[in-house]
Every structure is written in structure tokens, then in C-alpha cells.
Amino acid sequence: MPRRCEASSAVTMVHTRVLLPKGSGRRGWLWLVLFLVIGAANSDTALAESEPNPQSNNAASTTQLIAGAQRSDDSAFWNGLFSICLICVGVGQIFVYWKQKGVMQAALEVTDKAANAAKEAADAAKTSADATIVSLRPWLSCQVLFAGPLTFNRDGDAILRFQFNVRNVGKTPAMNVKVDFPQVALVAPGREHSLVSLQRQASFNRGLPARGGGMMIPGNVPITDAPGRVLFPGDDFDELRQFKISRGEIEKSIEGTTEKCFWPELFGLVTYTYHMADVRADTGFIYRVSKIGNKPFAIGEEVGVGEMELEPHELWGGFAS
Questions:
Q1: Looking at the structure, do residues 215 and 310 belong to the same domain, yes or no?
Q2: Which of 196, 201, 246, 284 has the smallest set of CB atoms within 10 Å of its CB?
Q3: For the residues of 2-55, what is the DSSP string, one character each?
């Protein structure tokens, strides 16, 4: 049986058992002493570590402060690095925008050029189409001649007779052709000018339906549009009209003057329509009627055809629509 040896440390109160084999002699005791010394040293070290040490606490606080400062420095470093990255990203975006701006401007210029080219092409096509319509549509001319002398009836009313020659000088047929409401008016102070009356008459005509029919007046009373002639290209027709100027009108026109003479004017429209017309077309005319030499007519004086003349009004250049 091996011998049992017990050793106790006064500091740690730890019991250690060492079993020494038989016949170990001095070597065994040497190992025992060495073991006890190492144990005592370990016990002192444990005691020293367990006792509070002000210097160790201060060192720990200092270490914590240093560690906190290092963490603050690290946080500032990473924040600064993040800010630098944001600045780099912003600069990159500005550069990309600048590049894209040039590309977009070039694209917009190309788009504008394409749009302008398309508009020019559309305008050219419309102009060509309009020119084609104009060149293919009918155009009517109207020539006015005297159809008889100036005469006076028993009541002193002046009688004038005219012949209207209407010709289609266009390329397509004209439909519903009429010499529409020709009138003879007297030139006098305070009277409406013939040009104004003719313009109003033309506006009324262009407001009517282009393809025949009629219009409605208050009370749903229809005003039918009587059909006119169909005039083919190169064809013409003559129409005779007689006009009466009452003695009362003549005397009213010369009130306030010393000369007993009057100046008649003839004005009117030739109206018509044609295929694909949006509005009614018309040809207007205004003539000054006088004796040869641009002289007025005297009241009660009859004048032959060879002694009269028709002159286009100086304020009228003629029109056709």
C-alpha cells in the first residue's frame, strides 16, 4: 500500500493529497516539495488578484477612456469617409447629368428638325392640294353691257337696261349659277357706299349652305334656294335685267345741290357652287354708270346706248371667291 501524505496551505486552506510509491526515496520527497512550492505561488497570485488595487482601477479607467477616444476617432473617420463617398457620388451624378444634357439637347434638336420638316412637308402638301383645287375648280367672269337706252316713264322714273354675260373660265362645271340681286344705287351724300352693300351681300351668300338646300328664319320658316344654272367650262349665258330708279329717289339724291343731275352705280354678285366646295363662291362687280366722258345724267333727259359708258369703280378691284 502506498503511503499517504497530506499538506495544507495556510493561505488557501486547500488540502492536497500526494501518493508516493514505495521505494521512491529522496526523489519522491523532492517532487513533493516542488509541488508544494508551486501551489503556494499559485495561491499567492490568486490572493493578489482578488485584492482591490487602486492603480489597476485607474489603469482600467484610462484604458476605457482611450478605447472610447479610439471609438470616437473611428466613428469620425467612418463618417468622414461616408461624406467623401457621398460627395463623390454627387460629383458623379453631376457629370452624368452634364453628359446626358448634351445628348438630350442633341436629341431635342433632331426632334425639332424632324418636326419642322414634317410641318414643312404638310404645308407643302396642303399648298399643293390647294393649288390643285384652285386649278381644277370653276371660275366665273361677269361682263356687263347696256341692253337699251336710258329712258323715263310717265312718273319721271329712270329706266336702265343691262345685259349680264357670265362665262365659266375654270376647269370644272359650276353649279347653281345665278346673277344674284344686282342693284342700281345713286351716289349721294349720306347714302351707304355700294362697296359696303356688296361686301354685306357677299358675306350673306357665303353663309348659305354650299350644297344647295336652304336656311331657316325665326318661326322655322324655310327659305328655299332656287336652283340656278349648270355652267360647264368654256360655256356662258346672257341675262337681261331692267332697273327702275324712282323720281323721288333721284330728287332726294340731289338735295342741297345746284345741278339737277344724278350718278347711278350698278353692283351685284354672280353666285355659284362646285364639287368639294366648303362655302359658296361668288364673283362681284361694281360699275359707275354715266354719259361718255364721265358726265352725270340730267333729270328727264333720255340717253342712247352709244352715249353711255360703264366704268369699273375706282375703289373696286373686283373679287372672286
A1: yes
A2: 196
A3: -EEEEEE-TTT--EEEEEEPTT-HHHHHHHHHHHHHHHHHHHHHHHHHHS--HH
